[in-house]
Every structure is written in C-alpha cells, then in structure tokens.
Amino acid sequence: MTSAPKRTRTSKTGTPTGTEIVARTSVGLRDVAKAAGVSTATVSRAINKPDIVSEELRLRIEAVIEHLGWVPDAAARALSTRRSGAVGAVFPTLTHGDFARTATILQHELLAEGFTLLLACSEYDPEQELRQVRKFVERGVDGIVLVGNAHLPELERLLSRQKVPSINTFVYNQATHGRSIGPDNRKALFDVTNYLISLGHRRIGVIWQSVANNDRAAERLAGVSDALSAHGLSAWPYQIAKELSSIGE
Hints:
- There is one protein chain.
- By secondary structure, the chain is of the alpha/beta class.
- Helix content is 43%, strand content 11%.
- It folds into three domains: 44 residues, 434 Repressor (Amino-terminal Domain), CATH 1.10.260.40; 99 residues, 3-Layer(aba) Sandwich (Rossmann fold), CATH 3.40.50; 47 residues.
- The termini are far apart.
C-alpha cells in the first residue's frame, strides 16, 4: 500500500526544512507550487511580475525554487506569453570601443527590464548581418537592435513580415524618426568642418576609416565634403587617408 506524500514544513522564513522535499531530476512548476502551498499562477506571478506579490510570498517561493533547483522553462513561457524575454543585437564588431561599451550598457538596461541580450557581429558584412538577424527571429526575440540605416532589403522585409520591432543605432535620419537613435553623422561633420573653416583654416586633412558597408563613415565624409564645397574648397587626394582602423596603424 502506497503511503500518502508528506506535507512540506517550512521555517518562519519560508525555507523548506528537513528531508520532506526531495528534489527530483525533473522538477516542474506544479512541484514548486505544491511545495510552496500556492497555485501555479501565483508562482508564475512571483517570477514574472514580482512587484504584484507580497515580499513574504515572493521570498517563500524563491526559497522553494532554490531548494528544488527548479529552472523555469523559457520555451514553455514563450509559448504561453508569446514573448521570449530576449532582444537580439547585431554590431559590426565588438573590438571597437564604442560598440563594446554600447553592448554593455544595453545589457544593463535590458536586464533591469527583465530582458536578456543576445549578441552577434556582422563584421561589416550585410549578408552576415541578415543571417544573424534571421537566427534571432527564428528564436523568437522580442526586438532587434541594429547599427546604421543601411541594411539589405531582405532584412527589412523579414522584420516587417514577422512584425519584429527594430531600432537603428549610431545614426539619426528624420525619414526614420522613431526607428533610429544617434547623431546625424553628416550634419555633425559638416558643423565641425565649417567651424574649422570659420577659424581661417583652408587646407583641411581627413583621416578616415573605410566607408565600405559603413553608412555612418560615408555620411561623415559627405558632411566634410559638403562644408568644403559650401566655401569653394576641396580636400586634395593626398589630404584624405582612408581605411585606418586604429591609431596604431
């Protein structure tokens, strides 16, 4: 004859005591709810919206989760909520300080909102960027962070068809207002060059990175050219050094 399962005893802090709870190899949401003496819905609320449950209840549920070693099933949660809790970001590279710092800040802000950051690098290759974005979409990310405004038409269509929100960083374009965040690269370098000219400088040199698959660099160089042209000036070929990726080079 099978004996009835023992009830779980907890300490005053809500921590399970003794050996009455035995962590099985496969622990589920129902096990946590039963051990904590609450419904599965309450456990879900304590995990997903901890601010709407009491601190005592949240601590009790967290203690049971820790004791049982339960890890929420992200795939199951995504099916029920239709949200993965993840945001994908594709940067050209992470060896560039600005991109690395942005990734760190982005991760910090997303974690504060309950999201996980997934990272990929395009290596300035539009085709690779498309492949990375497609993988993120296949995994059901809740949003995509991209760099620049220039992307393959296939990428734009993919995000549009799948209704995945996206934002372009390190750029600002009035035509894409609301979907881009960053400086107006062309205007910024126009203003800088115009300022140098206003100081009386006429022979202006430019040290520039490659503009291949880099719309930000192309826009900055165009801003310099616009300012020079506005004053009847031009940069001589030997005054423009391109494709320098670091000070050391």
